[in-house]
Amino acid sequence: MTIYWLAFVSFAIIAFLGLLYLQNLIQRQERELVTLKRELRTLTGNLSAQCDSGSGMNRRLNIIEGDMRQWREQMDEFQQMRQELEQEREQEQVQRNREQPYGEAIYLVHQGASVQRLVDDLGLSRNEAELLHRVHGIRAAA
Prior knowledge:
Layout: H1 2-99, H2 103-110, H3 115-122, H4 126-141
Helix pairs in contact: 2-4, 3-4
């Protein structure tokens, strides 16, 4: 009977040690679970903050895109105005040339053109070119 008793006591001690080991393992798992839950709450908060930040960025991007659209429209308007002004300037130049037959020659003299250039480019006689150069060249220099 002592062998049975000894086997029973040994089995009881081994079972008790096994239970202690399992209890220790369960406590370690519970601590790890608490730590993981805490980290999960932190990550959830961070994710929420990131989502809020992302929606704020989205709003700012929409505002910037709207501003860029307005600037593009204004740029198009300015380009249109510039083209219209250039066309008006060209029409005025043509009108001036019609009203004053030597208008282009006078303009070139004011820009510093030589007598020879007036003869070559505009087909004026040498006398016409020299006269225009003397009259309007002096005025431009004065």
